[in-house]
């Protein structure tokens, strides 16, 4: 577990943003296989979930642990998963009661149509939970993992609206006004922003409407989903 060597009582907390919830400085969440299903595939290496450019640190606030108690630690997670990618818990999925096939394993695609769960009933915008879902867009075109701005990160997904020019969650800008993306085919790249996303240097805007010609919104929406 590599985080241990990075924990230090001498580190100063950096309060650059809302913490993103009570688990921001609780690495035990990532070690829980029910909470982080991908952890089994990375050898329980906590460091892979945090970008070295993430400036946040704060007091450990998880369950009693002699390794971390009383220390200032780095933020647990810098990365989020696209809301258009992944699978969904079927028991929760059935509670939405939107009249679509309850046997589907693909995510509902929160925010794709501009509302949190509206896409579940219309399914206008594609989501990607299985290889078979890549019928109109190839896996090299759709991003799965992204650096999220420390001013925006809250839950485990980066919400993207593709139906209208709106930014729900804000990707990061820490790589010289660029952001790291991991795509569904396994490749990764740094994308440089040219429009409104680079203006976020504080808590995320309440009104996130943007111009329909904003190059940042166009790029991220075109790489999040595609119309069925």
Q: Could you provide a short overview of the structure?
A:
With about 230 residues, the protein is of the alpha+beta class. It has 4 helices and 7 strands; from the N terminus they run αβββααββββα. Residues about 1-15 have low confidence and may be disordered.
Tell me what you see in this structure:
With 228 residues, this protein is an alpha+beta fold. It has two domains: 1-77, no CATH class; 78-228, no CATH class. Helices cover 10% and strands 12% of the residues. The chain has helices at 28-31, 90-96, 119-122, 215-222, and strands at 57-59, 72-74, 79-82, 143-147, 157-158, 178-183, 188-192. The strands form two sheets. The chain has a five-stranded mixed sheet with strand order 5-3-4-6-7, with no helix packed on it. The chain has a two-stranded antiparallel sheet with strand order 1-2. Strand 6 (178-183) and strand 7 form a beta hairpin. It is globular, with a radius of gyration of 18 Å. The termini are far apart. The relative contact order is 0.15.
The number of distinct helices, counting runs of at least 4 residues, comes to: 4
Shape: globular
Mean pLDDT: 82
Largest sheet: 5 strands, mixed
What number of structural domains do the residues give?
Answer: 2
Helical content stands at 10-25%
What is the H-and-E element order? HEEEHHEEEEH
Distance between the termini: 42 Å
The low-confidence parts are 1-17
Query: Which band does the percent of strand residues land in?
Result: 5-15%
């Amino acid at each position: 577990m590599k985080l241990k060597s990075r924990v230090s009582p001498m580190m100063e907390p950096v309060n650059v943003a809302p913490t993103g919830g009570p688990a921001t400085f609780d690495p035990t969440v990532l070690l829980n296989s029910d909470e982080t299903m991908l952890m089994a595939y990375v050898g329980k290496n906590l460091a892979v979930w945090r970008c070295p450019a993430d400036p946040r640190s704060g007091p450990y606030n998880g369950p009693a642990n002699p390794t971390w108690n009383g220390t200032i630690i780095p933020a647990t997670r810098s990365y989020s998963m696209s809301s258009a990618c992944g699978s969904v818990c079927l028991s929760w999925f059935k509670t939405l009661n939107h009249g679509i096939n309850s046997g589907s394993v693909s995510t509902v695609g929160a925010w794709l149509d501009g509302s949190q769960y509206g896409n579940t009933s219309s399914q206008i915008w594609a989501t990607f939970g299985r290889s078979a879902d890549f019928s109109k867009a190839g896996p090299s075109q759709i991003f799965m993992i992204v650096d999220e701005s420390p001013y925006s990160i809250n839950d485990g997904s980066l919400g993207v609206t593709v139906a209208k020019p709106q930014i729900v969650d804000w990707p990061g800008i820490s790589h010289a006004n660029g952001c790291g993306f991991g795509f569904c085919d396994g490749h990764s790249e740094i994308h440089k922003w040219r429009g409104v996303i680079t203006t976020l240097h504080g808590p995320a805007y309440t009104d996130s409407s943007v111009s329909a010609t904003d190059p940042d919104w166009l790029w991220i929406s075109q790489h999040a989903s595609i119309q069925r």
